[in-house]
Known about the structure:
Elements: H1 3-10, E1 37-38, E2 46-47, H2 49-52, E3 66-68, E4 73-81, H3 83-92, E5 96-97, H4 103-113, E6 118-119, E7 127-134, E8 137-140, E9 168-171, E10 175-176, E11 192-195, E12 201-209
Parallel strand pairs: 6-10, 7-12
Antiparallel strand pairs: 1-2, 3-4, 4-12, 5-12, 7-8, 7-9, 9-11
Keywords: Signal
InterPro entries: C-type_lectin-like (IPR001304), C-type_lectin-like/link_sf (IPR016186), C-type_lectin/snaclec_domain (IPR050111), CTDL_fold (IPR016187)
Protein name: C-type lectin domain-containing protein
Amino acid sequence: MDTLLIIALCLGSCLTAPSLGPKYDLDLGKGNPEQVLDFSLLGKPKLTDEAKKRFSPCGKDDEKWIYKKEFNACYKEIHDVSFNEAKEICLKFDSQLISIHSAEENQFIYDLIHTNETKWYSDHQSLLLGGLKLNETFTWIDGTPFNFQTWAQGEPNNYKLGYDNENCLAMFTFSMDYAYHLYPPEPYLARWNDNICSKTYTHSMCKKMALF
């Protein structure tokens, strides 16, 4: 079996990692990668100080991710996706659709993504999050606790045309013209809304834990 596959299957379930061998290359420089990896933390390689000099908290493609030390996480914006499309894209990046666990993180995400333009109401412009309604209860698909929520007034309401299918979660990130919208003029920016999973959202975001 390929060494990379062995390591991928083993992380999180094996007590010890197999020998990586001299030909394995992590793009950390010359030499055996065992010099820069430490498997003492079960489930996640721990980078040594030498590796940290060559690696960023978000990995090799750090320039494509935004690192936030306060949340020990990395974030990457993606565009024009449905829930299933966003989920698959994030998995390809070894990440998950974003989960949010505090008011501070929620505000950070809003500040990253929001626009100052006032729009005729279109919830396609909302930011798709990684929340999914299962058995009438919202949960994060990355398995983390649903321990923070900030719904807009009247939400979640499963509103869409009586189809009873607003099973996904989105964040309001833009100003709306209230003459064409149902919501009263109350603070709604950065608040959440239940919405349809199959529609195409202008914005979504992947999240992964930082390496160190």
